[in-house]
Amino acid sequence: MQSFDGQPTSAGSVAEAALPRHERVVERLLRLQRITAALAGARTLTEIASTIIDQGMPALDAEVGVVAILSADGASLRNLGFKGVPVDTEAAWAEYPVDSPVPVAEAARTGAPVIVPTREERNARYPVLARVHGVEHGGAVAAFPLVLESRTVGSLGFCFPASRAFDDDDYAFILSIAQQCALAVERVRWHEVAEQEIAHRRASEEALRARERELTALVAELRQTQEALREADRRKDDFLAMLAHELRNPLAPLLNAVELIKAAGPATPIVERARTIMDRQIGHMARLVDDLLDISRISRGKITLSLERVDLVELARATALDYRSLLDARGVRFELALPPAPVWLQADPTRLAQAIGNLLQNANKFTDDGGSVRLSIAPPHPARGAVSVEVADTGIGMEPAVLERIFEPFAQADQSVARSRGGLGLGLALVKGVVELHGGSVRAASAGLGRGAAITITLPLCAAAPRAADARRAADARRAAASASSRRILIIEDNVDAADSLRMLLERRGHAVSVAHSGDDGVAVARMAPPDVILCDIGLPGAMNGYGVARLLRAESAMRKTLLVALTGYAQDDDRKLARAAGFDAHLTKPVAQAMLERLLAELAPLPETA
Ligand SMILES: Nc1ncnc2c1ncn2[C@@H]1O[C@H](COP(=O)(O)OP(=O)(O)OP(=O)(O)O)[C@@H](O)[C@H]1O
Ligand SMILES: [Mg+2]
């Protein structure tokens, strides 16, 4: 018999195979088939190794079998299976350098089979094996590389109990299981890579889903925060409206009392000075309270404009007149630059005057003595469809950062407690609100601190010419004001101070006044002697409020000619509507301005004796 390494087999030193050749060949073919079938089902590298070892060892009559795999960097080998050695040897050789002096490592390193037919050769070439197996034990060794497309991925090896020759059948058999093993390793590895890939993809998908969930939660949280902010803002507006209303109530009797002192005739200089101070301070207070109310109404969308045709030039001139003395007194030069022809707008004159007035007030407040203020309207160009009103001053000016936020409520450049110029920071927010309600816009400019400021309101123009009716209405109102004379007036008001001071004022003007402090009393007094005018508070104690009084009295024929006027601290548009619906002819907001009341009384039908 000839061994595959070309050496003659010596019958004396090498053991003959136990089976006759053809039987051995058949047996090995069966083994190979079994290996192929088992490897096809192997899911892990360990399963592959044990299949190879379990089938290979009996087929070859080997006593030790090992399958090892190369690390990714090719520097070491790891045993996937190791059978036929003591457990401690198995553990000691779990992983070892690829240059270890053992046949399996050599085969992996060189990519070529290592065949050691005799014990002597083994002891000589591989002293490590001699130590592990015993110099007097075992014999031949065969190690084959696991090669895939000329790439070595590991090796397998068998040790035999005695020296033996390896013929072509042996060689072909070991080569064939080495090839099968290499293929199976590759398949399992690809499988592992694919599974890792799938697991990785699943993990990324899960991470994405988790991120999506996080984002959804974040959006929900943001929405909640936003809603909470909006709610807080609504509550702030409600609070401001309520605060302004509550502050307004005590102002009414105060204002009336001051009017009374004035009407009482000449007073001592001290009383006169005190009255002037009170008058002015109540005026300030009323303005602050009004601003607060207005701003809360604007932000709640509760202001509706009473639009009419307005000559902007005339309105600007009249507003300027109100501020001229203020500026003159401080030595601030006031310049008016108005176009000669009227500029017609569809606007609410009271609100527009309020806006221009706020700008003039600021110009006055922020310009030191000796400076100058200029109110100008450039002649509008019809094609542009808009007109601009500008209030420019030479005052303290503003830094760019301040310019950005001055139209926000409560925004002021000077936020120190020791602010020398006072105010709540509402003026410009009101200007913006009012101007935007008119479909216009407002902007501020300043060259910087100490270099003056200019605020410009731009408003849409109104195309058509003025109607004669507007002019006539104004004239009628003036005539009516002149014809006011004594009326029978009933005041229904639960606040005794407010009722008394108003009564005294009206009596001073020559009216016959009676007072009731509840709805029921009011109705009773009215029925006894129907008055010309009933001034009725809305918030009355007891079962009947002001609306109830109006509904009841309006239905009575004796009260047909009676002017029913609602008095409230609230000046909301809704309240006006409610008052109208209940039957009130007019609605006055407390504190009642004398002029307003007189105008209202003057507009009543002429008295019988003067008719
Ligand atoms: N003409 C101006 N020159 C310089 N700064 C101005 C001028 N007008 C407004 N500002 C700045 O803008 C801020 C806001 O003005 P705004 O009229 O809204 O409030 P205010 O005048 O401080 O208070 P309020 O008008 O409520 O009495 C002012 O505090 C001031 O810092
Ligand atoms: Mg202001």
Structural account:
With 611 residues, the protein is α/β, with parallel strands linked by helices. It has three domains: 174 residues, Beta-Lactamase (2-Layer Sandwich); 160 residues, Heat Shock Protein 90, CATH 3.30.565; 131 residues, 3-Layer(aba) Sandwich (Rossmann fold), CATH 3.40.50. It contains 18 helices and 18 strands. The chain has a six-stranded antiparallel β-sheet with strand order 3-2-1-6-5-4, with helices on both faces. The protein has a five-stranded mixed β-sheet with strand order 8-10-11-13-12, covered by helices on one side. α17 links the parallel β17 and β18. The radius of gyration is 53 Å and the shape is rod-shaped. The relative contact order is 0.06. The site of magnesium ion has 5 residues, from α10. It comes from Sorangium cellulosum (Polyangium cellulosum). Its EC number is 2.7.13.3. This is histidine kinase. It catalyses: ATP + protein L-histidine = ADP + protein N-phospho-L-histidine.
What can be said about this structure in brief?
The protein is built from 18 helices and 18 strands. It has helices at residues 21-41, 45-60, 87-92, 103-110, 119-125, 127-133, 168-263, 269-299, 312-329, 349-365, 400-403, 427-437, 468-482, 496-508, 519-528, 546-554, 573-582, 594-602, and strands at 64-70, 76-83, 95-97, 114-116, 141-148, 151-159, 308-311, 333-337, 344-347, 372-377, 386-393, 441-446, 453-460, 488-492, 512-516, 533-537, 563-568, 586-589. It has a 6-stranded antiparallel beta sheet, with helices on both faces. A 5-stranded mixed beta sheet has the order 8-10-11-13-12, covered by helices on one side.
